[in-house]
Design a protein that fits this description.
alpha/beta, seven-stranded mixed beta sheet, two-stranded antiparallel sheet, 15 helices, 44% helix, globular
Length: 358
């Protein structure tokens, strides 16, 4: 697949360019003014050469992992931007996965009350989801992404060549968000994932590029219609109330986000069935089967089998009460009526939740 350019029609529109080698256009695509680079040690080691001439820009290299999404690291990034001579005309190039993207995006939103942001996502999860739409955040002890802002990038370059170096679990983490996207659509992507799961795990370059572009187009349309998540954009949180509670209860960074999302999707489908909403009773088993084909866990029991992971029901419930999408400590769920047909802002009684989380 040649590079595909997808426009995100927000108040300040921007392109997402998907394809092999698109980072070669980084220098040409930068807004005018000074710039700096934020990355992590793993990405720098593997992909620094892809920055081209931008490798000469001031660069801050963070420790990889979810622990970097903190106020302490955010302050470090802001101090770096000031020390690098950036001003209101400047841009921050965020080069890495979702952690660096979320943290760097928030720093760009805060520095001088907002500077330009260029997202260069290097993981599948960041390419299909977190680099698009302007959500930026750090974690609090109480929960994931509870301190953040909307700050849209000026440009996103999703170079699918970087996916070749992903650890297997990080590839599968990205596939969790891909499965979520498939459940929001007409069924074509879901069928393709079922049919070509082996090629995905084998990292077929053309297939991965097409899947990334498909997910970007879906998200771009939703974000354009609801930039600040007042209604339709909440669809993108399908499975995430469960997933964020799983991540919090396990300890941030212990279970990759997309792995938690995969289990969260099955839990959300089973909750939909218990709530009397789901008109396609085969869907929970179908998604669980697909996750198995992709080498991913499909239930809490599989996650609890990991060393050091408890996921006690009371800890999961506590995490849900801190979910930012809820109201007055009452979690609000996205539930399913069927494939591509979801219901927003649904509440579940505690008895149902306890049974699902047992």
């Amino acid at each position: 697949m040649s590079a595909k350019r997808i426009q995100v029609a927000t108040a300040q529109p921007y392109p997402v360019v998907v394809g092999a080698g698109v980072l070669e256009g980084l220098e040409r695509g930068l807004p005018t003014g000074p710039a700096a680079v934020l990355t992590d040690a793993n990405v720098e080691r593997l992909h620094a050469a892809r920055l081209g001439a931008c490798a000469k820009l001031p660069r801050l290299v963070l420790a990889p992992g979810e622990a970097s999404k903190s106020f302490a690291t955010l302050e470090l990034v802001l101090d770096f931007l000031l020390a690098s001579g950036l001003d209101r005309s400047s841009s921050l190039i965020v080069f890495g996965g979702g952690v660096v993207g979320d943290l760097g995006g928030l720093a760009a939103a805060l520095f001088m009350r907002g500077i330009g942001l260029v997202q260069c996502p290097t993981t599948l999860l960041a390419q299909v989801d977190s680099s698009i739409g302007g959500k930026t955040a750090v974690n609090l002890r109480a929960g994931k992404n509870l301190a953040g802002a909307f700050h849209q990038p000026r440009l996103v370059l999703a170079d699918t060549e970087t996916l070749a170096t992903l650890p297997d679990e990080e590839l599968r983490s990205g596939l969790g968000e891909v499965v979520k996207s498939a459940l929001l659509g007409t069924g074509k992507l879901l069928e393709r994932l079922e049919r070509e799961s082996g090629a995905l795990l084998a990292r077929d370059a053309g297939l991965l590029a097409e899947v990334v572009a498909h997910c970007v187009e879906l998200k771009a349309g939703i974000v354009a219609r609801d930039e600040h998540e007042r209604h339709e954009r909440k669809l993108l949180n399908f499975g995430h109330t469960f997933a964020h509670a799983i991540e919090r209860a396990a300890g941030f960074g212990r279970i990759p986000h997309g792995i938690a999302v995969g289990v969260g999707l099955v839990l959300a489908l089973r909750a939909s069935e218990r709530a009397g909403l789901l008109a396609e009773p085969e869907l929970p088993a179908r998604v669980a089967r697909l996750l198995g084909l992709l080498g991913m866990p499909a239930d809490l029991a599989a996650l609890r089998a990991r060393p050091g992971v408890r996921l006690a029901p009371d800890e999961l419930l506590a995490g849900m009460r801190h979910d930012k999408k809820g109201r007055a400590a009452r979690p609000a769920f996205v539930l399913a009526r069927g494939l591509g047909e979801l219901a927003l802002d649904q509440e579940l009684d505690e008895r149902t939740l306890v049974e699902l989380l047992a």
